[in-house]
Amino acid sequence: MSSLEDEKLIQMVYDFIESSESSSSPAYSSSASSDSLSFNHHTKYFTLQEILRSGTEAESGVLKSVLKHMRLNKRDANKRSTTTTGLKKWLAKKLQIDGFNASLCQTSWVTSSGCAGGDYEYIDIVIKDGNGGETRLIVDIDFKSQFELARPTQSYKELTDLLPTIYVGDENKLNNIITLLCAAAKQSLKDRGLHIPPWRTLTYMQCKWLGRAQKWKKWL
């Protein structure tokens, strides 16, 4: 990814922070009449809404910490990271300082039948509960753009407009989002007469966050 693209990504994150502080997410537009939506899309839309609205106290705490540090990073231009990886490393360190068991994770997979090879980075946090159990939370500061399509249908755009730029949630919640969006992407591409690109298949998208990952917890 070029420096210009990295800067655009970072600015997208800052824009999200400002918008999330100024107002809550708008309700589904009344101008988009339910009569114009297929039953299938209507179901997907409200299912995705419910998935995104579900959350735990732990997720809220992590998101609050993430937004706090991103605001501070924005205000101090001298400390602002200039690459996506640098920003993720910086954020993971700050989350560690806040007491979270945070790591920078990288998934990497080879080309196999029906799935192109690739790699991806995100932040991983392990939360321990009072009963000795653990919950793995995934933090992705570039979440929404991972589902972009060329020439999306209006129905698909309505779904991706619901997605947050910054994702904080567990693997089950994430897998539900991926499964729903990949099905919708397949229909969108079909409606446009386009083939599904290898990087938008369900298997590829699951490999990004749910595949076997290597963790880095120390940066020095």
From TrEMBL:
InterPro entries membership: PDDEXK-like
PANTHER family associated with the record: OS03G0796600 PROTEIN (PTHR31579), T14N5.3 PROTEIN (PTHR31579:SF34)
Name of this chain's protein: Uncharacterized protein
